Amino acid sequence: MVLCKYRQRGCDAKLTKERMSEHERSCPFINSTTQTEDSSCIRTSPQNDAKCQFESIGCDFRGTDTELLEHEYTSLQRHFRFLLIFCLKSDLRALEAHTKLQSVSSDLRHKIQQYVISLRNLQDESRADHIMLTSLMEEIIVVKRNFEENNEHVHERNVAAEAIMRQKDEQIAALHRQFQEISDSNAVLRYRVGVLEDFAFDPLTRLCPRAPPGPMIVVQIQDGEHEMDGNIMEICNFSEKKRQAMTNRHLTLISDPFITNSVNMKLKVFLNGEEFEGETCMTVYIVIVRGLYDENLNWPFMGKFTLRVFDPESSSYTFVDSFDADPSHFSFQKPCTERNIGYGFLRSIRHSELERLVKDDKLVIKVTIMAV
């Protein structure tokens, strides 16, 4: 249902669209105005102006509904001209679109042909790749088969190598046992050589003890402490003893015995001792000797040994080296003979440093023992 277009003039008809067309041609309110409105106001108001139905093709007429009907009747030729121009423009646009479409279609056909050629090339390459992959797979299968065969041979060789390694390990263990036996025998021989050195010791090369000389120097233990008073030894006539040591490498200077924590000890000094970095050093050993109370003591002997040498320039003792007693070493076990094998400072002082430490042809050594 639609309303009459003259409803603003007072028509309240409400009909279907088909009947409304017939009604509007004979509507009694075509030439009438409302009681509250001025006819001139309706004519000039933009809200009551009607547009020509050919506005979309160029007609710009505006007016009342009556004027619009009269305009449409009197301007048919003008409207046909607008319509013709619109159709011609539409044909031109269609022709341009058709031309553009043909150009685009030609480009698309050209691109499609290129894509078809590329696709054929890709198919050819894919066939070649498939052939190559098939060949590679066959080669991989052959390599895998060869690897499995070689792996079996490698496993057999590994088993044989492990057997050889076990045999070599047993041989190495046997050689190690032989080396230990030889080392033990060497230690016994060294001990016996030391004993012979004591018996063959030249009294002229004996170490000069602190004055007055006596058979034994006793190191007293302070009450409540474990640090001992250091045993001080003076090597007199040093230059002569050094000269003798250079001609006789095994020349040994042995101190008088001293007691530390009820354990009898001696010092052995080799002026021509071990070599270090191409230079000869003086070597000092600690030797545990048999005592009267060894049966009542705790073994092995445990303690820290510190070697110092008196420096005449500073009038003080200079630290040289220190070591802790090794409880597993036989040098610190209970003596089974007159004395144990010496243990000590192999590279005590280099000969180049000894000269400045000698004053009045005398070298002073101090050994401090911290018993545990």
UniProtKB/TrEMBL annotation:
Pfam families, alphabetized: MATH_2
Source lineage: Eukaryota, Metazoa, Spiralia, Lophotrochozoa, Mollusca
UniProt name for this protein: Uncharacterized protein
Domain SIAH-type: 1-77
Organism: Sinanodonta woodiana (Chinese pond mussel)
Keywords: Metal-binding, Zinc, Zinc-finger
Single GO molecular function: zinc ion binding
UniProt domain MATH: residue ranges: 228-369
InterPro entries (UniProt xref): MATH/TRAF_dom, TRAF-like, Znf_RING/FYVE/PHD, Znf_SIAH
